[in-house]
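Task card 7
Instruction: Convert sequence to structure tokens.
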Amino acid sequence: MSGIDVGGRSIRKGAADSVRQWVVTQGGSVPVDLAPVVEAISNGGGTPLVVADGPRVLGVIHLKDVVKPGIAEKFVEMRKMGIRTVMITGDNPLTAAAIAAEAGVDDFLAEATPRTRWP
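Output:
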């Protein structure tokens, strides 16, 4: 989560869980329709960024990675050569699964950080 404090306002954006927790600590509550919106974006391969101003959720920004045309075919060629493909991403597991399926990778690791170790 990141943001700015300016003019007496505290504006934050980030992963839904982080912003949810922050809004509650600010004395606010989270709209009941937030979770389904975040899940729908994730299931579609997007990254949902929740935006809040103090104790109030303002909305959700839908970010989407673009899978390069032809990449799935390249992965098929690599598979024929015995090469297994793995996508490592900081995205949540729903988003990672959708992008991995779209790109045709063999496996993925979601919510990766610089300290994450592959199993």
